[in-house]
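Lab notebook, bench 4. We co-purified these components, and the gel suggests they stay together. Before we commit to crystallization screens, I want a quick structural picture of the whole thing.
Request: model the full complex, all chains together.
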Amino acid sequence: MSTLLQLQDVSVSFGGFKAVRDLSLDIKKGELRCLIGPNGAGKTTALDLICGKVQPTGGQIRLGDVNVTDMEDYEIARAGIGRKFQIPSVFKQLTVRENLEVADCRNTGVFWNFFHAPGGSERSLEELAEFVGLKDHLDEPAEYLSHGQTQWLEIALLLAQDADLILLDEPTAGMTAQETRKTAEICLQLRGKHTIIVVEHDMGFVKEIGDVISVMHQGQLLAEGSVAEIEKDKKVREVYLGTSGISHA
Amino acid sequence: MATTVNFMKSKMKTKTIMQIAVYAAVCLAILLLPLYAQDDFLLNRIARYLVLAMVAMALSLSWGYAGILNLGQAMSFGIGSYCMAMALKLRTVPVHTGTEGLPDFMVWNNVETLPWFWKPFYSMPFALLAGLLIPALIACILGWFMFRGRVTGVFVAIITLAAMIVLSLLIIDQQQYTGGFNGITDLAQLELFGIVFDAYSSNTYFLVAISLTVCLFLALALTKTKGGLILQAIRDQESRVRYFGYDVALYQTAVFGVSAAIAGLAGMLYTVVMEFASPTFLSVQLSLSIVIWCAVGGRQSLLGAMLGAILVAGMQGALSESEVFLESWTLIMGGLFVLIVLFLPNGLASLVDIAAERFRRRQHDATTQDEPAPSAELSEGKL
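Here is the predicted assembly.
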């Protein structure tokens, strides 16, 4: 399989503090990659770098054949990268349907959008809502949704956006065990069609979905491999304070 | 399940149709008003309120829908009104110099030739276009710098306010070209397609009422497009919209420009209705009043903002002229604003939503009560 996303020695520092240093990642097309690591390891910053929220101070980020290192955030989104934020961020005053319509961004031109009514592909948006279990809430404002529903709505927004590469930042944060399982199901269904990078703390969730896991520590890549390999890795055990390794993290 | 979805969808459509019907009814009432009010003085005054309603509606478009609080809305309004005043001034025959002479205030200020930027205003089509496009262009340039630089919230308010004050000081300072503090007075009557628009006539009233109706429905159509939806999304979560690939700054600049063009048109009409243009049209006071009208009427509703302006400006007029409230009217208006901000943060327009919610809940209660109804009947039978 061909490489979709490539990070080459990417670094960023905030006022002298190197949040990410010389990070290199190769993500293949259709892969579901988990990014784990202790607090402050630079996982969220890594996602920020990929989606253009933060400009790297060194290194190069390529999406397919496109160099997205110096692009504006909205240009990177157009190139095919979608992002789910750690704090669920949806449009609270808009209904679920309207949220999905905004996310359906095949045409981003100002003039086109001011001369076209929303709802060009109504059916598929309804299917998406059904996929994440929000079909009965289509005409409710997003602010009335529960926390878990808001998380799923944001995932549905990413699907409506139909990005090649989806970045999920702690998609199960604040979810019940049941909701977490459902989120894992959604992730597994997406694998193959989309390339996904998940940042997550919940090891049960990671074990359930992960093919390849990348472990970060102090802004650097510490280890990379399958769940079994990572669990045996000595360095990873040292980093996760409980010396029994990630299995109990 | 499919039927509920269809039902919900039809409910959404009904909501839009209801909205259009209410908007149309209000516009119709405005257009039919001269049948009942034939007093030209009264018509002129109402026309004035309608013009102010138009500016409030324009602000609602940028503030209520896109979250851009423009405290310099009166700048676009003032530019429009000066464009119209310049064109009409050139159509008056100056008393001192006769036809083709200089406007009177220029003569008083020892100006010998008409300045270059006055000359195009001999052409009425140019003046009309200028009144629309110059405010829009200035807004777009200002907006481009602000929104490209990702300036948001209160800083937008400060920048727009400052820009307006700069322009108003410039107008006051350049007395020989602008009439300074006195503004531009003693204007000819506007004549378009052979129709003369005397400020105190139903002609002018209809001109204002029709312009307002057209602008209102254009703005409503704009909010119903996908772009309108994106604007509301930007209002809710600006950064999120960027990660869908939309160039947020372009959308903000566009709505800022459209809002300024409507305000410019309102300014032109204001000159026709008031028969003069003055630096007070670009004042901080007017700008803040526009914000208050929007807040009272409901900034997230175009019609709400419009009616808010008519209501507040109308009340101001009525109260300040009645002998009973001569001294206390500002206090009454102030109290009203405080009450509305406290109890109806989304303005009077939110009363409609609250009423609809009550109605829906009552219906919901009624249906849930229907279900255990048989047992209730039974127990009554027992009694």
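The interface with chain B takes residues 51, 73-75, 77-78, 82-83, 85, 89-94, 97-99, 101-103, 105, 108, 110, 113-118, 126, 135-136, 138-139, 157, 161 of chain A (CB under 8 Å). Worth comparing against the SEC data before the next meeting. Residues 1-80+163-249 of chain A form a domain with the Rossmann fold fold (CATH 3.40.50.300).
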